[in-house]
Every structure is written in C-alpha cells, then in structure tokens.
Design a protein that fits this description.
Length: 152
C-alpha cells in the first residue's frame, strides 16, 4: 500500500462560515486553524494548502474567559521608549475587534510560508454582514461542536 500525497489537482476548497457569537476565543481559533490547514480532511498533506476558505462573522461578540480580557498586548514602535500596550478588552471594544480573532488563529498555525498563505484564506468580520454570498458558504455550527465535547 502506497502513501497518498495530494497534488494540486486533488485539492477541493470549500467556503465555510462560522458565527463567533458566544463562542470561546481559543476554541474558535483552534477549529478555524484546523479548517485552514485542512486537517479535517482524509487527504491532508502537510506541505500543501489543502484548507478551506473560512469566513468568521460577529467577531466582536466572541467570549474571552477568565481575566484574559484584562491581559495587556504589547508591541514596540521601533523608537526609543516606544513600548505600547492595549488590553484585549480595549481591542474588542475598539475600532478593529476582528484583530483579536485573527491573531488567535495566526498563533495557532505553525510559523512559515505555508501558514502565511493559509491565513489569506481567512476572512473575519466584526458584524454579521459579509460580502461573500456569491460563494455559497456552508454554515459550520461551532457552538454545537463544543457542547458535544464538553462534560456536563
């Protein structure tokens, strides 16, 4: 029996839409990262971009558990004394709340050129509207997936 290795002709990309309202950020990010890489497919090949195109809506309504909402995120401007910080809660309530979801997914992917290519297949929107109706995305219910995997 030979090992299957996918070729570009074998890749079948689909469009998936995920509603992030009320979903825990880390669980959402791990599911989206798995879909972007294509690990949910039986034909997964690690060195190919096998993943689906993922649309995440209602990113501003994602749940952050514990005191992570008050955790500061740091960056440096490149100038002396240019360390800046902003908490996750400030980012979610600010102008670009979709950046929290994008960064969480980005950090769940392995680093490298392929992961940067796979991140181009992710579209995150703060509200419930998106301009990708022409692709006929299928809805992935993440809330019911989490209920199956958690104990009561």
């Amino acid at each position: 029996m030979k090992t299957f290795t996918a070729t570009p002709a074998d890749i079948d990309k689909q469009w998936i839409i995920i509603d992030a309202e009320g979903v825990v950020l880390g669980r959402l990010a791990s599911i989206v990262a798995m879909r972007l890489r294509g690990k949910h497919k039986a034909t997964f090949t690690p060195h190919m971009d096998m993943g689906d195109n993922v649309i995440v809506i209602n990113a501003e309504k994602v749940q952050v558990t514990g005191d992570k909402r008050d955790k500061p995120n740091y960056w440096h401007t490149g100038y002396p004394g240019g360390i800046k910080s902003r908490t996750t809660g400030e980012i979610l309530e600010g102008k670009y709340p979709e950046r929290v979801v994008t960064q969480a997914v980005k950090r769940m992917l392995p680093g490298g050129k392929l992961s940067r290519k796979q991140m181009t297949n992710l579209r995150v929107y703060a509200g419930g509207e998106h301009p990708h109706e022409a692709q006929n995305p299928t809805v992935l219910d993440v809330k019911s997936m989490n209920k199956k995997n958690t104990r009561s």
